[in-house]
Amino acid sequence: MGQTKLSSKLRTIIKSAAAAAVLPVLFIYIMIAKPDYSLMNGLAHVVLPVANWIGDVITWPLRAVGVAADNIRELSNLRDENIRLRHALDDALRNKNACDVAIAENQKLASELDVVQNLPRESVVADVMYDNTAFNHSTFFISKGADDDIEPGMVVIAVDGTLVGIIIDSGPHFSRVRALTDSDTNIAVRIAGSEVYGFLHGNGSDVPTMGFFSDPEFQPSAGVKLVTSNISGVVPNGIYVGEMINESDVSVRQPDTLSRVIVLLFDNENKYEK
């Protein structure tokens, strides 16, 4: 029963298609054999839409292929443009990184230049040659010595003004500096902004310790800043030393972080003028 209905529908579709295909032929025949313009005008309203529909059906695959080709071409163009944009972005990022590095170096040089321009009146700039840390001792060598008026006992600071050591030996063209972490270091310091004094002791580790405070009621804590005190007659007063990281340990500049230092040439009263 179902197959009979399907066959009937199929025959109807075939007949309709055949009739639609015959109409244009009939229209052409009338135009040539019996040119009745009123009849042709009436048939045109039927034949032309049918012809257009048949043309659309016949040319649909071709049009579909054309649309697909256009889409493929557009996709290819988009991919090429995407590749060009990626290359442009990579170039821009490389340029940005280069600019960031240049800015950082410029700021560092400007900072060092500012320090050099604002040095104490009597001072010597030197490069760090190498450091030597062994058996609880921490020293480093600098590129200036006795020929530059550098003598044992003089103070060495980093380019940012932080205390980093004391000259212990001086040759003609080099000097040896005892770092703050050296076990023989014992420097008088005070709490910045107060009159609380103490002594900074090196112990051979990366963090020297505070062993004494003049005010027994003072409670040391992390973040407290220390500066030098000249009560021991070893170093000038007021040079930044470091920051406490707990009740006893102090964070200071390590020798292996230094590339350039400044030697302060001060008088017998341990004073230096800017």
From TrEMBL:
Q: Report the GO terms under cellular component.
A: plasma membrane
Keywords on record: Cell shape, Membrane, Transmembrane, Transmembrane helix
The chain positions of domain Rod shape-determining protein MreC beta-barrel core read: 128-246
Q: Where do transmembrane segments lie in this chain? A: 12-32
What is the designated name of this protein? Cell shape-determining protein MreC
GO process terms (BP)? regulation of cell shape
Q: Which PANTHER family match?
A: CELL SHAPE-DETERMINING PROTEIN MREC
Give one Pfam family. MreC
Which residue spans adopt a coiled-coil conformation according to this UniProt entry?
none
Organism placement in taxonomy: Bacteria, Pseudomonadati, Pseudomonadota, Alphaproteobacteria, Candidatus Enterousia
Provide the family line: Belongs to the MreC family.
Domain of life where this protein originates? Bacteria
